[in-house]
Amino acid sequence: MNKYFISLLMLLVAATGTQAKSWKIGPASVTGMDFASINAAMNSSIVSAGDTLYLDQYYNESQEQTVTKRVVIIGTGYDTSLTDEQVVARMTSNLTLKTNNVIVKSVRLDCPVSFYSSNCVIERCYIGNLIKTMSTTAGMNRIYSCYIHARIEGYSNEYPSKYDIQNSVLIDDYFGNPSYHNIAYIAESIINNNVIRKYNTNYYSYVNQLECYCLSSITNSQITNNLVLGYNSTGQSYYNKDFSSDVVASGSGNTIEHNIFSGTAALSYYPNNKTGQRDNWNNFFVGKGNYSDYYILSKDSGDNPAIGYATDGGDCGCHGGMFGCPSGGRPQYIPYFSKVVVGSRTENGKLPVSVTVKIQDE
User: Fold this and answer.
1) Torsions phi, psi of 97, nearest 5?
2) Sheet holding 90-91, edge to edge
């Protein structure tokens, strides 16, 4: 047999043997599930690198899950109001990523997320607890289009980590001490088209006389097209600030352009930015709807400095830029039942059922 034909046959066999597969993760009470947890899938010999794990809407995980294979994990979004059943795939204990190139999409993460790895992507997720790099050898990890009610930290101030954070909303630490900074201990990173703010009602830092910042201990990074709102809505600081002095200090190596700051201090260091001129920072936004929808820029309340001010000529904030911040974090192009109505009586021997199916096309 021709040796070239044999080589081609071997390549075809290898390609067939490594074809990626999909697996369904959910409780045993739901028909058709392949595994009861992410851990069970990781421990199975039939799950391979490159496979996709689809989390059922009734997947409600209370145990720590550790990802040890290069997989894609796709949930059902994080806004329970989008479906009649008001249930989404959810995790309440640690999610630990211990291998490179893992992708996590559209999962409600009411838990800490720990990176021991590089080139992982967290996208379209709600994250309600600490996001932290746990290894000095970890490379850049990426967070896109997320609603984050927590803080993001690198390994330490001495050993900062790399992040690419785009098109997300970052608000005060929800579960932990609210005096922490929104983003800290990172270097050689990208912070682009986000809304980064402190709670308007956060008096903790005032009572304890602790300064807390939206941005702190960041070096050699690109910080562009964000709304950085450290001050509260009345303009009083309560020790909440946009950034710590080391972020804008000479020698920090940061590129800070086309951002909207709530204070004016940054402008003396980096004049190619703006400060908001509104009585209430909430007036920047439409202020209606859940999660990221609240932060759609308002065009109805006078001149909004964030509109058209981004480096690409678009808008600052989470809804401009490359990725956008889709409503509710639903996975793209995967249909879902938004409404199911079952009749109470039969008609001509049949039970009437009405189903509304939607798809997230952005």
Assistant:
1) -105, 110
2) 60-61, 90-91, 108-109, 126-127, 147-148, 169-170, 195-197, 227-229, 260-261, 274-275
**Phi, psi torsion values for 288, nearest 5 degrees:** -125, 150
Whole-structure pTM value = 0.85
Q: Which residues contact 237 (CB under 8 A, 6 or more apart)?
A: 230, 231, 263
Cβ(323)–Cβ(144) under 8 Å? yes
Look at strands 113-115 and 108-109 and give their pairing. unpaired
Q: In this structure, what DSSP letter does residue 293 have?
A: G
Region for 302 from its dihedrals, namely left if φ exceeds 0, alpha if ψ lies in -120 to 50, beta otherwise: left
User: Which residues does 118 contact at the CB level (< 8 Å), separation at least 6?
Assistant: 100, 101, 138, 139, 140, 141
Percent of the chain with pLDDT strictly greater than 90: 50
- 77 close to 90: Cβ distance less than 8 angstroms: no
358 contacts: CB under 8 Å, gap ≥ 6: 335, 336, 338
Identity of residue 93: S
Residue 213, H or E segment: strand 212-219
| DSSP one-letter string for 45-88 | TT--TT-EEEEPTT-EE-S-EEE-S--EEE---S-GGGSTT---
SS3 of residue 271 by DSSP: coil
Q: What is the pLDDT of residues 23-40, one digit of tens each?
A: 999 999 999 999 999 999
pLDDT digits (tens, 9 = 90+) for 275-313: 875 555 667 888 887 888 888 998 865 678 899 999 999
- Cα–Cα distance for residue pair 361/265, rounded to 1 Å: 41
Number of neighbouring beta carbons within 10 Å of residue 101: 15
- Place 86 in a pLDDT band, splitting at 50, 70 and 90: low
- Report whether 261 contacts 274 (CB < 8 A): yes
